[in-house]
Structures are given as C-alpha cells and as structure tokens.
Amino acid sequence: QVRLVESGGGLVQAGGSLRLSCAASGSIFSIYAMGWYRQAPGKQREMVAVISSGGRTNYADSVKGRFTISRDNAKNTVYLQMNNLKPDDTAVYYCRMFSSTDTWGQGTQVTVSS
Predict the structure, then answer these.
(1) Which pLDDT does position 1 carry in this prediction?
(2) At residue 49, what are phi and psi to the nearest 5 degrees?
(3) pLDDT tens per residue across span 17-37
C-alpha cells in the first residue's frame, strides 16, 4: 500500500523560503508522475506543480519563477522549493502520486505572514 508523508511546512514571513518534502513508501516511485497541490481556507484544492517520471515539470501561473519541483528517485522523495513566498501562498500543501490508486498525503500547513 502506497503511503505519502509530507514535511517541511511552517510559518514564514513574506519573501522567505521553505522546502517541502514528500516521501513515498510501498511503491515503485520512479515510474509515477508526482504533484504538489494546495488548498487555502474556503477555496478549492488547486495544482501547484507536477513532475513527470521523466522529470518534465509544469507549474501554476501563480508560482512560476518562485517555486521549483524536483524529485530524487533514489530516495523516493519529491520536493517543492518555495522562494519569495507571499501571504496568498498560505494553504495546506498536499503531495499526490499519479498511480492507479491516485494517492494523496495528509498535507502540511504553510503560513506566510505579511
């Protein structure tokens, strides 16, 4: 059974940086695309960034140039480097594995203060 565990969230001032990690267990990590999504209070969950098994990336317009998604297949881990954070980036961030079971992590809170 696949399990995804996110870490790295926290409280940061506007303009600061955070790096989120998502560790996968129980699956062949390298063959699946992975993604980061976020959900702010009162809003729908939205895609932030995705990375294919081959390393191709795609970003939401709101984070282009500030966030970078990457993966380390040897560690079964996907990362989200977030720079120049803004208060609008405040949300719970979720990791997603595009497997046949479409697995999600439990989420990690990111709060950006102005």
Answers:
(1) 81
(2) -160, 150
(3) 999 999 998 768 889 999 999
Nearest to 59 by CA among 67, 2, 114, 88: 67
Q: Which of 34, 19, 11 is nearest to 87 (CA)?
A: 11
- Which of 34, 77, 43 minimizes the C-alpha distance to 62? 43
Q: Nearest CA to 76 among 26, 35, 38?
A: 26
CA 104, CA 114: separation in Å to the nearest integer? 30
Q: What is the dihedral of CA 72, 76, 81, 82, to 10 degrees?
A: 160
Using the structure block, give the residue that is written with the tokens 């729908």: 44
Token pair 């961030």 is at which residue? 93
CA distance 36 to 24: 13
